[in-house]
Amino acid sequence: MSRSETVWIVDDDRSIRWVLEKALQQEGMSTQSFDSADGVLGRLSRQQPDVIISDIRMPGSSGLELLSSIREMHPRLPVIIMTAHSDLDSAVASYQGGAFEYLPKPFDVDEAVSLVKRANQHAKEQQGLHVPAAQARTPEIIGEAPAMQEVFRAIGRLSHSNITVLINGESGTGKELVAHALHRHSPRAASPFIALNMAAIPKDLMESELFGHEKGAFTGAANQRRGRFEQADGGTLFLDEIGDMPADTQTRLLRVLADGEFYRVGGHTPVKVDVRIIAATHQNLESLVSAGKFREDLFHRLNVIRIHIPRLSDRREDIPTLARHFLSRAATELAVEPKLLKSETEDYLQQLQWPGNVRQLENTCRWITVMASGREVHVDDLPPELLVQPQDNAPVSNWEQALRQWADQALGRGQSSLLDSAVPAFERIMIETALKHTAGRRRDAALLLGWGRNTLTRKIKELGMNVDGSEDDDSDGN
After folding, report:
1. What pairing do the DSSP bridges indicate for beta strands 261-262 and 271-272?
2. Which fold has domain 313-387?
3. What is the dotted CATH code of the domain comprising 6-127?
4. CB of 266 within 8 A of CB of 155?
5. Which of 237, 228, 225, 134 is nearest to 179 (CA)?
6. Class at the top of the CATH hierarchy for domain 152-216+224-308
7. pLDDT tens across 392-436, in order?
């Protein structure tokens, strides 16, 4: 960007304004800051910047209200919405309101600068569109972890699309919840959402369930029956555990996706439907394709956009918030006073492995609501199976206590400048561990660490680390 390009920063937090000002000015941009949305609107009638980056919740007019006004006055002006309130509604409302990007706090400064550069370039290349602001809704998905923010971004970007989506994640991670959100925030929201679990339907009934049947098509078919495709006409059909679909049904599904029509079982008249497909699986479909158990052409039809739902153990920071939500909901269902987790209980829950993911945590909170004797929940009040774990799944030791002991010993030996050795060692271990968990993919490792990819690359160089990670940082599409 040249010096003639101007960025307006709108945030009631002075420290955020200062950090962004310094970072953008170092990149040769001129900046102007505002502590409220109201001051921006008056200035916009006389002057227009190249990019606006605004907080979503401020005294007076909100960032979304500002965004709506900007869309009417200057539809081509790119706006980046940032917020510390990391929820699905904020992301979707930002995208549906016409925001260029959604930036959750705390953010990486390098990533913020990169977004501003992309926003300016995008404004030069693309035609701006006015989109009505979304109506407020009750949050349906909870998560502030970086991996969940990626899910929110994907749902927001797909909110104006009818494109096919493949959701991948372990059992209990909330794949159907994400499918519901994709439908609810899509142009088909007023039409049916029909779900069918492939693993729950007997093989000989699969085609009848999907495509329906004519009267007399088989023994017991006393009447014509509409299948799930017809029920979902105009809306969304969610096919859960698609990896369990039989081979012959895969062939019929492929034809429907290609032609938009099918025959009921026993029928001779084609039935036309307009259905968006969202599929989900806990399996590795690529491996099933390689093993000849899943059609490659169907896989490519379904794998247009893929959303990965992280394991609960990969988003541990969300566990206390999720637990409080589930405890509140269980209390409402049972008409009792909600239980309160002690801080040490929250810490303990965060250390567990949760092989059943969010579903297991929800069931645990129901158990606590019924079985825990007092209102405050101590570690001893948890289900017995969570207190006696296999050694491989035992909670990790208290690293803060170990660090304190190391510092005491180092200072006892007369060592000084502890941070000069401790901080690089800490960062090195965190980077190595994150890269191990992402098979060397630096972009994914940066997300796990809560950094931007540029920050991770810079840290690796500063620490002199010999890392053979995948250089996927140069592509925004990965």
Report:
1. antiparallel
2. Helicase, Ruva Protein; domain 3 (1.10.8)
3. 3.40.50.2300
4. no
5. 237
6. alpha beta
7. 444 444 566 677 777 877 777 777 788 888 888 889 889 988 888
Residue where the block lists tokens 């005294």: 59
Q: Which of the 8 DSSP states describes residue 225?
A: B
∠ CA 447-288-279, nearest 5°, is 60
CA distance 365 to 380: 14
Q: Which residue pairs, CB below 8 angstroms and at least 24 apart, start in 359-362? A: 359/171, 359/172, 359/174, 360/172, 360/312, 361/312, 361/319, 361/322, 361/323, 361/326, 362/322, 362/326
Q: Torsion angle of alpha carbons 465, 469, 473, 478, nearest 10°?
A: -160
pLDDT tens figures, 302-340: 999 999 999 999 899 999 999 999 999 899 888 889 999
Query: Does 218 score more than 80 pLDDT?
Result: no
Contact between 121 and 161 (Cβ < 8 Å): no
Contact (CB, 8 A) for 145 and 92: no
Residue identified by tokens 């569109």 is 129
* One-letter identity of residue 260: G
Distance between CA atoms of residues 182 and 140, nearest Å: 11
